Q: What sequence folds into this?
């Protein structure tokens, strides 16, 4: 008679706790989209009320992005040192308070300061929320669920536009105050939902707190499971934050940061300035506005399709195809800048659809390629560096359109996509079907052993 082999935690079925945790962890992308977008809805009213100069307007808009750059890396280090649970709640307390504080600002300096702090809180929530979620999810669903969080950013942005427009119509001259402070509501709701979330069992094990880790595992998975069912219960060595910058992990930091940045620069530029770009290319009036809506819908559709493909196609192939076909769409826009309006719109929609693969992997690869002890720091660093790309894409596009013209601007965007494709071609590993421990292990030759085996199987 064969002996029954108990299922590993990574092979355990998805349960209600995993689904709830995915909802709770979506606070980061939702509030990211909401807080970054609501400022654009009411910027004109803010500028009039606070008598902002053009430079101050730019600082108000950019302060949250700069805050995310700081908060991502700092938050990642803190969550690796102190645990996921503590900051998981505290960051939403700060988000709620800073959002509410915007209601009473009376100067540009006060608003810039609060937006900077809001950005830091959002940036900190990205690595801790996705790290906590990744460390609980079964390997079969980990990629698709982490990937689906990217779509929540667009939901947050859409909510901001709807709420902002309603407030502008009913709240009078102080509408901008109510609109900015409205982020308090979703932050408070997510905070309430997160209360009672347990600490990561993997993090507890890494800190030697085995009894606590065992209790969490039994609570989440059932009494028949224990710490013995954690794939990484036997640690080869500990990795320090300093090791993120050299050896095999340095290469992984470079890969994650480069592909994320190459994906996000054209994406943010096109998303933020779609109406202006479309007008420059021949779509005027309502067609430009409708075109911007169509592009946004294609971004969402692309993410949905990529979530469905991430397991059957694999991470590496999905990333390569995403950069290849979205880059081709940008090249066609550069070659035919004066083509028919509908053809131009079709090219833009094709770009938005195909870049979905790279977008959804922005949450997957960083969490799969680094071990528990530095996962938060690695995700935080990648988040921080991606915000540099967001700022570049958002704030240099007007200058590029003015000085280089639309065709050359699209050639630059195509070039960025080519860089992303080349980086992916030479550096992207395949982590499909691996448990979280194996996908993060570095072998002596600085290559993930399981990835090499998987690659050979795919060939």
A:
């Amino acid at each position: 008679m064969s002996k029954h082999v108990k299922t590993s935690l990574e092979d355990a079925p998805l349960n209600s706790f995993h689904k709830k945790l995915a909802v709770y962890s979506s606070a980061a992308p939702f509030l990211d989209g909401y807080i970054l977008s609501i400022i654009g809805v009411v910027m004109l009213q803010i500028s009039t009320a606070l008598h902002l100069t053009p430079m101050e307007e730019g600082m108000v808009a950019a302060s949250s992005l700069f805050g995310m750059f700081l908060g991502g890396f700092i938050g990642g280090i803190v969550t690796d040192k102190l645990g996921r649970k503590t900051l998981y709640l505290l960051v939403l307390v700060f988000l709620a308070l800073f959002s509410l504080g915007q209601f009473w600002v009376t100067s540009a300096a006060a608003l810039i300061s609060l937006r900077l702090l809001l950005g830091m809180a959002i940036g900190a929530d990205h690595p801790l929320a996705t790290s906590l979620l990744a460390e609980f999810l079964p390997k079969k669903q980990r990629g698709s669920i982490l990937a689906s969080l990217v779509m929540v950013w667009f939901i947050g942005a859409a909510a901001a536009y709807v709420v902002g427009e309603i407030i502008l119509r009913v709240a009078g001259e102080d509408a901008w105050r109510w609109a900015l402070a409205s982020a308090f509501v979703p932050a408070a709701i997510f905070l309430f939902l997160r209360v009672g979330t347990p600490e990561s069992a993997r993090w507890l094990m890494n800190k030697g707190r085995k009894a606590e880790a065992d209790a969490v595992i039994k609570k989440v998975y059932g009494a028949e499971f224990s710490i013995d069912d954690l794939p990484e219960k036997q640690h080869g060595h500990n990795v320090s934050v300093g090791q993120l910058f050299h050896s095999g992990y340095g290469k992984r930091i470079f890969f994650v940061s480069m592909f994320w940045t190459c994906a996000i620069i054209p994406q943010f530029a096109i998303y933020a300035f779609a109406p202006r770009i479309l007008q420059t290319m021949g779509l005027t009036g309502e067609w430009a506005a409708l075109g911007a809506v169509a592009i946004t819908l294609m971004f969402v559709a692309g993410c949905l399709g990529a979530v469905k493909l991430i397991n059957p196609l694999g991470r590496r192939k999905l990333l390569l195809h995403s950069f290849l076909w979205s880059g081709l769409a940008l090249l066609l826009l550069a070659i035919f800048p004066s083509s028919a309006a509908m053809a131009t719109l079709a090219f833009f929609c094709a770009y938005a659809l195909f870049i979905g693969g790279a977008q959804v992997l922005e949450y997957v690869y960083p969490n799969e390629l680094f071990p528990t002890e530095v996962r938060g720091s690695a995700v935080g660093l990648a988040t921080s560096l991606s915000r540099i790309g967001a700022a570049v894409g958002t704030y240099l596009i007007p200058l590029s359109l003015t000085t280089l013209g639309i065709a050359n601007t699209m050639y630059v965007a195509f070039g960025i996509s080519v860089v992303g494709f080349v980086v992916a071609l030479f550096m992207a590993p395949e982590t499909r079907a691996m448990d979280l421990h194996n996908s993060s292990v570095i072998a002596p030759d600085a290559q993930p052993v399981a990835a090499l085996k998987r690659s050979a199987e795919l060939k």
